[in-house]
Amino acid sequence: MTTPLRTATVVVIGAGQAGLSAAYHLQRRGFASAIDEPGASRTFVVLDAGDGPGGAWRHRWESLRMETVNGIFDLPGFAQPPIDPREPSRDAVPRYFAGFEREHGFPIVRPVRVSAVDEAPDGRLDVSTDDGVWRATAVINATGTWTNPTLPLYSGAETFEGIQLHTSEYVRGDAFAGLRVAVVGGGISAVQQLEEISRTATTFWYTRREPYFLGQDFTPEVGARTVEKVIADVEAGRPTGSVVSYTGLAWTPYALAAKQRGALERRPMFTRIEPHGVREADGSFTPVDVILWATGFKPALSHLDPLHLRNELGGITMRGTQVADDPRLHLIGFGPSQSTVGANRAGRAAVAAIARMVDEAAA
Ligand SMILES: Cc1cc2nc3c(=O)[nH]c(=O)nc-3n(C[C@H](O)[C@H](O)[C@H](O)COP(=O)(O)OP(=O)(O)OC[C@H]3O[C@@H](n4cnc5c(N)ncnc54)[C@H](O)[C@@H]3O)c2cc1C
Prior knowledge:
Blueprint: E1 6-13, H1 17-28, E2 32-33, E3 43-47, H2 89-104, E4 108-109, E5 114-119, E6 125-129, E7 132-141, E8 163-166, E9 180-184, H3 188-198, E10 202-207, H4 220-235, H5 243-247, H6 253-260, E11 266-268, E12 272-274, E13 277-279, E14 285-287, E15 290-293, E16 318-319, E17 322-323, E18 326-331, H7 340-362
Parallel strand pairs: 1-3, 1-7, 2-3, 3-4, 7-18, 8-15, 9-10, 9-15, 10-11
Antiparallel strand pairs: 5-6, 6-7, 12-13, 13-14, 16-17, 17-18
Helix pairs in contact: 1-7, 3-6
Flavin-adenine dinucleotide is lined by residues 13-19, 47-50, 55-56, 60, 69-72, 113-114, 142-144, 146-147, 189, 297, 300, 303, 333, 338-340, 343.
């Protein structure tokens, strides 16, 4: 039996920090649940692939604790309860998100995976899922990056007889006790995981470029300058890089601990992977048992491919949260809003713009 076509004024895809912020602002502006009140004049629904609340935080590695996250901004109007700094973020944050969802009773449907967003015959957008199609006047995409890990192609990778894993599969450092571990990547996750692994294993750190450590703290001014640079990139249609490519790395306690242990001795990228190790840039061979690809994530947007949003630079040209030239489509938790505070603000901005569009259409 096929599920009938359902409609909503706004479909939000994803219920992480960004999607929940959008849901909060939609509800505040009087958008009703498309599930409970499908006949209302303005409705919304949130479709989320997760099995429960928490967005990507459900999947963070066990040893990423509340004291080692960069800092999680409160959801709109909902202060975080006192949290044990030693608690894994993958437990504490989903519990906090669940409380927010309960408080507001948002129409969140999960687990529902969106496979495609495409033009509808009547000028709206069709959102296809593993549970039928939603037709929407506007779509707010808030799918984050976690489900799109970046795995660079290196020659010989398929011949490696040890363990290869990506940051997204990492659980805790002592899983590699006594082994020789190559950690690849120059971002925050790479440094955190390198520090943990180096407590009980021999590590080798590979990055394409010399890592750049900030000589100063990550102040609000540094944050504001970073956001400006990312905005300039997305408005020019350029693909954005990792956060660290804009900010540099901070001398956090774990970075200092790694440095003291000698784990931050960076090597240039190896040239080839062999069955029992890696061939170094200088031609020598380093035996390793594990290669950890701490090589980051890219925005999870493949379901938007039918809309052909990418330009010749490979980026998506944006005007604020809106896809340039398409007021029906907003990307939040994307580009300059890829942080918990940015996600909050982007949710509010996207909803304000869509509410204006709906008002104008109704006038
Ligand atoms: C390791 C790591 C640590 C970080 N630490 C911090 C930090 O301390 N502070 C900070 O501000 N930022 C941090 N960030 C950035 C952080 O990810 C964002 O700030 C924010 O949590 C992302 O929220 P989001 O709503 O955009 O995405 P997510 O939390 O990833 O939520 C996306 C949701 O969309 C769903 N989804 C994805 N694809 C589909 C689909 N096709 N159909 C339906 N649903 C879908 C997912 O299931 C998920 O529930 C970190 C990022 C990483 C990778």
